[in-house]
């Protein structure tokens, strides 16, 4: 008897599988860390074969823990978005390392295209800006570095598409609308691949996967992988899966996920939104007749900032230590950290910017730098909320949050204070995997009424407006200095 749903959550730093029962209670989990490759400054790559092996490993562990493949009703996949893979159509093997969403190697290409006046056309069709973050220029770079014979038999896809291809034994080359909307090749208005965009980025149309809804039949796994064929019935990019997992089904509902980066996304309803403040318009989810667009702001470094403070500067032993260090200070001592390690995301979208710590004095200590790293996450989120307001989005009544950084109560209170919004954290933090499981259940016909994640901790703003304004003014001055230095 099938009693569980298997969620595959393939992220930037690890690959995870979680089995949920039919009431969406987590029952078993397994996780494998993912090797990060940095061939040159600003370049970030993953080994797609390593991702594949880790996916099979964690799935087998979880399936065994719940009693075998006969217990699994269906599989949902969620993935790091924009990361670009090109593989051999016959073997499924990658033809180049995956180029990760953080990678900035095509910044000059994007700058030239902007200079040629291409960006308005790209933004009108895709909702995106011309930036190395997205898949199209990564794909072009890979194709430019392959032999012509390899290109002839190549498939392109984001991580979900590659896993789906290999899980089904090469029978299915598909993706879902949320992932397609992050490639810079997909027209979100017409909801299809765009021939003109493919021509701009030299992307052969035959290489692209079929685009499907986020919930529905995607095929079945090869029987030899897990002991029997299991239907795959849900696919979504990680941030959209989190939107679904939080239950952001009404326009104006918003969530922020604090992982390696931070991604704030608001449901904008059925009409494609237009941003005048450099936010991204994207597909929120596509489930049957229920289709929602979203506005999104992307921060490239959130948890990555804490990793740098731990592994790079060695100021903390673990992320949990940062809470006590920040709380030990009466204020930030005028120290601001702008974590532009891979450029700045929304709303600046400056690929050339590099990180900086400003405001240091002889009185500055390690605690000030650590606190500045935590504060930077809140300031960047506040910038995104300000951009949403300027775009005419509904006011945020409660910001739903998830991700590792939300375990830091000091950081969440500061986030609430600086953004002047209520911040709500659910009891179960793996909301991305939960969203994948709920999409899979919906696609398999197991769930017609999808519940939202349930909050168990709330922070409310208590900072005076004058203090909030002063902090944001100094933060924006620090950002302006970084941008000026990188120009």
Your description of this structure?
Helix content is 35%, strand content 23%. The chain is of the alpha/beta class and 487 residues long. The chain has a domain at 4-237: ATPase, nucleotide binding domain (Nucleotidyltransferase, domain 5), CATH 3.30.420. Helix 10 (238-246) crosses helix 15 (431-443) and helix 13 packs across helix 14 (409-419). The longest helix is centred in the last third of the chain and has 25 residues, at 366-390.
Overall CATH architecture of the domain at 4-237: 2-Layer Sandwich
Instruction: State the separation between the terminal residues, measured CA to CA.
Output: 61 Å
CATH class of the domain at 4-237: Alpha Beta
Radius of gyration: 22 Å
Helix/strand class: alpha/beta
Low-confidence stretches: none
Given the C-alpha coordinates, what overall shape results?
globular
CATH H level, superfamily name of the domain at 4-237 = ATPase, nucleotide binding domain
Name the quaternary structure.
single chain
Give the rounded overall mean pLDDT.
92
**Would you tell me which CATH topology of the domain at 4-237 applies?**
Nucleotidyltransferase, domain 5
Strand order of the largest sheet: 16-17-15-14-20-21-22
Number of distinct helices: 16
Task: Bin the strand percentage.
Answer: 15-25%
Secondary structure: elements and pairs:
Blueprint: E1 4-10, E2 14-21, E3 26-33, E4 45-46, H1 48-65, E5 72-79, E6 85-88, E7 98-99, H2 107-115, H3 119-126, H4 135-144, H5 148-152, E8 154-157, H6 159-167, E9 174-176, H7 177-180, E10 186-187, E11 192-193, H8 195-200, E12 210-212, H9 223-226, E13 232-237, H10 238-246, E14 254-258, E15 262-269, E16 280-287, E17 290-299, H11 303-312, H12 321-327, E18 336-338, E19 356-358, H13 366-390, E20 398-402, H14 409-419, E21 422-426, H15 431-443, E22 455-459, H16 465-486
Parallel strand pairs: 1-5, 5-13, 9-12, 14-20, 20-21
Antiparallel strand pairs: 1-2, 2-3, 4-7, 6-8, 10-11, 14-15, 15-17, 16-17, 18-19, 21-22
């Amino acid at each position: 008897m099938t009693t569980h749903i298997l969620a595959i959550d393939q992220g930037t730093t690890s690959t995870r599988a979680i089995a949920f029962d039919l009431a969406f209670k987590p029952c078993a989990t397994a996780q494998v860390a993912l090797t990060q490759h940095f061939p040159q400054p600003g370049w970030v790559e993953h080994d797609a074969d390593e991702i594949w092996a880790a996916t099979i490993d964690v799935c087998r562990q979880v399936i065994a823990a719940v009693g075998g493949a006969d217990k699994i009703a269906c599989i949902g996949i969620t993935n790091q978005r924009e990361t670009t893979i090109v593989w051999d159509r016959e073997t499924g093997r990658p033809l180049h390392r995956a180029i990760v969403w953080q990678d900035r190697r095509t910044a000059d290409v994007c700058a030239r295209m902007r200079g040629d006046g291409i960006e308005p056309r790209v933004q009108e069709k895709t909702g995106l800006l011309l930036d190395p973050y997205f898949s199209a220029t990564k794909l072009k770079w890979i194709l430019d570095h392959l032999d012509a014979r390899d290109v002839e038999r190549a498939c392109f896809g984001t991580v979900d598409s590659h896993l789906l291809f290999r899980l089904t034994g090469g029978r299915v080359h598909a993706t879902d609308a949320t992932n397609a909307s992050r490639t810079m090749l997909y027209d979100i208005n017409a909801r299809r691949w765009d021939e003109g965009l493919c021509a701009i980025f030299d992307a052969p149309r035959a290489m692209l996967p079929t685009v499907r809804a986020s919930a529905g039949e995607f095929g079945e796994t090869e029987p030899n992988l897990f002991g029997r064929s299991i239907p795959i019935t849900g696919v979504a990019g990680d941030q959209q899966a989190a939107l679904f997992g939080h239950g952001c089904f009404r326009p104006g509902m918003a969530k922020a996920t604090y992982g390696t980066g931070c991604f704030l996304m608001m449901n904008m309803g059925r009409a494609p939104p237009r941003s005048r403040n450099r936010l991204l318009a994207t597909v929120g989810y596509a489930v049957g007749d229920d289709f929602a667009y979203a506005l999104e702001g992307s921060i490239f470094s959130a948890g990555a900032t804490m990793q740098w403070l731990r592994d790079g500067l060695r100021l903390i032993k673990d992320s949990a230590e940062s809470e006590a260090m920040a709380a030990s200070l009466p204020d930030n001592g005028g120290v601001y950290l702008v974590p532009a390690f891979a450029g700045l995301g929304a709303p600046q979208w400056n690929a050339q910017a590099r990180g900086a710590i400003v405001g240091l004095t002889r009185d500055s200590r390690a605690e000030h730098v650590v606190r500045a790293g935590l504060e930077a996450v809140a300031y960047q989120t506040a910038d995104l909320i300000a951009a949403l307001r300027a775009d005419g989005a509904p006011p945020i009544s409660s910001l739903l949050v998830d991700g590792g950084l939300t375990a830091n109560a000091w950081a969440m209170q500061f986030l609430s204070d600086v953004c002047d919004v209520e911040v709500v954290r659910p009891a179960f933090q793996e909301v991305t995997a939960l969203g994948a499981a709920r999409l899979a259940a919906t696609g398999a016909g197991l769930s017609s009424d999808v519940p939202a994640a349930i909050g168990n901790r709330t922070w409310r703003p208590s900072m005076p407006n004058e203090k909030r304004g002063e902090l944001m003014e100094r933060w924006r001055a620090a950002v302006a200095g970084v941008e000026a230095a990188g120009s």
